[in-house]
Amino acid sequence: MNDNYSSQDMDRYFNDPEYRKSFSQKRNRRTNRGIKRYWKISLIAGTLLLGAGMFLMIHLFSGLPSLDQLENPKPELATRVFSVDGEVLGRYFIINRSRVTLDEVPEDFLRAVLVMEDRKFYRHWGIDIDRIVKQTVKNIIDMRVRGGYSTITQQVARNLYLTLEFSIARKLREMITAVQIERTYTKDEILEMYVNVSFFGRGTYGIASAAQVYFGKIPADLTLSESALLVGLLPGPALYDPFVHPERAMNRRNLVLSIMYEERLITEEEYNGARNEEIYLREQGLHTVTGIAPHFVEYVRRQLSRLSDQYGFDMYRDGLNIFTTLDSRMQLHANRAVEEHLEGYQETFNRRWNWNTRRNREILQIALDRHIRDREDYKRATSAGARDSIRTALMNDTTFVNEVKRHTTKVETGFVAIDPKSGHILSMIGSSDFRTTRYGLNRAVQIQRQSGSAFKPFVYTVAIDNGYPPSYELLNQPVVLQLPGNQQWRPTNADGSFGGRNTMREGLKRSINLIAVRAIMEIAPVNQVIQYSQRMGISSHIPPYPSISLGTSELSPLEITSAYGVFANEGIYVEPISILRIEDKDGNVIADFTPNRREVLSRETAYLMTSMLQNVIDGGTGIGVRNFFNYPAAGKTGTTQDFADAWFVGYTPQITAGAWVGFDDRRVTFHDWSDGQGARAAMPIWARFMKYVYEDRTIGMPVEYFEKPDGIVQQVICNDTKMIASEYCPSRSTEVFISRTLPDTCDLHTSHRRDEERRRGATSY
């Protein structure tokens, strides 16, 4: 009973048993209703709490790796591109990471990592409780949230599987995953993961990439001082970047060394020696920014992009090893040849170029308009007035105008060297500015320019295959040809001279235009020339006009160079290749590559063409080669109309190489024969390259000679009649023939007839 009841109710309650019974029933009913409400509320609250807990657990575990991922971790690895002699030419990556085993990592580096990052690594089970408590207390005292909780195992978890955003959920996931990792792997396996996935700055993940980028070394060659510097980078790679903050980086290195000494991990002598050691960082230039062959590396990347779907790999994440055909030693020689030749050549051109002529002012105006339109600020401008304002400002900006001038008149080059027997691309240069051009336009592959006289060998090849020997004579006389559209073509010789007859050998040696034109008109039909050039590797469109005899068709350096390789390879065309093998990160072969081969010429025809092209170098338009290179070689110069493009394509028995020199802006041309002909603008690059390659003892290129096939016959001929010499011939020379094309022997009647024609000054017979 409570105070809400009256005295009468109380008396009745104690004196009347029935009343007391009914009262108890009412009270029980009220109590039962209260209990029901309590359990109902408890059930609802419990359900809500359970749901929240389950949501939290789902949220935490949704970011965790599966057991399969833990047992088979797949960090993003950089794909490495190797030269044929084992040098790393470049990497493809989203994250630049390369893998090494723990045995390849210096002990000093591992000691430094453990003392700086996780001293209890071999004693904890993935989480260091003491460390968490101490850091939490410190954060509370300092009233700020900082790191410092993570063990090496937790850092592996974060780097391998989790995102990098900071949150309580991420830290919990990190801890759970760390415990799973500890249950799955040994301590040494975890430490190996750590040194391969840690970020060292400058886009590098793992000690292998870091050692290469900062010191140009493999990890095993790192000194104690270098190891300490790299470990010092781990807390803040940008903060301690030795290239940007050298003093800060050295202080951090010294801190690592001092802690190692205090913990008796190194001796006092080692400590003092490492502290006083001068650090030599790798030069951030040719090799670390662009590599020695940036255009070749990009050329390979484009091919890998096409192969990725076929073979199911990701070149940016799978850590592939790409073994290529390029020889790093030959590439360095090519770089040197281009640099030595073009440095002075550019200066000579600049002295003679005059921007004040009407034509050149028009070229500059077009170039300025193009550069302005390509600028991002101009593209983003939302009104004509804003664009006009930008244009006016740039036109009056001397620095901008001078840069456009420099770019427009920059002498460019494309160079490629190929092994004619294997098709291996040995070196490739896509720009004269190979030291600073990361990729850009690859002029060895991506340009197509008129080839000039470098195309003439394809015309003479058809003539030889049609049964005409090198001694066959053609008229060196002007000709007028009708072209479509009622136009006329009046080809001339480069020096304006003409007269008499010349052999095909002499026509090629001296690059006589009218002899090549007569050849395509009389003995090497246009359609045949096109067919032969395509069979020999020319893939660009060749228009069906006689003018192609003078190289009016536009070709790339790679295709014309590979086509010349048919001569060097005794009539066999081998498609140029750049990739030999693709391996996964564990060394398993994904794909092997071999080039396509086909016989396109007889050995005899190929040899006769080589014999004729040897004359070009030994005494013709390519004789300048002999100022640099005195080994057996054959080749041809090429100069186009108005001196817009200069070429030299040539070969030895082991190497075929081609060089193009010109300008990206086709309106800019060389001045005249003194600087615009192939023998001056392009040939020195070829000759220097060959000289350096054959003199390099590390390459050990043997001297080889062009082998004469059995079907070739050497004969003494009469210079007047071009027939086999007899007792009646006053002047003789040696010529080579395919046995089936041997001429008749010169007789008295023929000799007298030619003598009479010579006395009369006849120009034909």
Structural shape: elongated
**Would you tell me which CATH topology of the largest domain applies?**
Beta-lactamase
**Strand content bin:** 5-15%
Integer tally of domains = 4
Biggest sheet, spatial arrangement of strands: 2-1-6-16-17
Name the CATH class of the largest domain.
Alpha Beta
Q: Which residues sit in consecutive blocks of at least 5 with pLDDT less than 50?
A: 162-166, 285-289, 759-765
How many alpha or pi helices?
29
Report the strand count: 23
CATH H level of the largest domain: which superfamily? Answer: DD-peptidase/beta-lactamase superfamily
Largest sheet: 5 strands, mixed
The radius of gyration over CA amounts to: 40 Å
CATH architecture of the largest domain: 3-Layer(aba) Sandwich
Averaged pLDDT, please? 85
Care to give the gist of this entry?
With 765 residues, the chain is of the alpha+beta class. It contains 29 helices and 23 strands.
List strands and helices in order, with pairings.
Layout: H1 7-15, H2 17-62, H3 67-71, E1 79-82, E2 88-92, E3 96-97, H4 107-117, H5 129-142, H6 152-160, H7 168-184, H8 187-197, E4 199-201, E5 204-205, H9 207-215, H10 224-233, H11 246-262, H12 268-276, H13 286-290, H14 294-311, E6 321-324, H15 328-352, H16 358-373, H17 376-380, H18 384-395, H19 398-408, E7 412-418, E8 425-429, E9 449-450, H20 456-465, E10 473-475, E11 481-483, E12 487-489, E13 501-503, H21 504-509, H22 513-522, H23 526-535, E14 554-555, H24 557-568, E15 572-574, E16 579-583, E17 589-592, E18 597-599, H25 603-619, E19 634-639, E20 645-651, E21 656-662, H26 673-676, H27 678-681, H28 683-695, E22 712-718, E23 732-738, H29 748-760
Parallel strand pairs: 1-6, 3-5
Antiparallel strand pairs: 1-2, 4-5, 6-16, 7-8, 7-21, 9-14, 10-13, 11-12, 15-18, 16-17, 19-20, 20-21, 22-23
Helix pairs in contact: 1-2, 4-10, 4-11, 6-7, 6-8, 10-11, 11-12, 15-28, 16-19, 20-23, 20-25
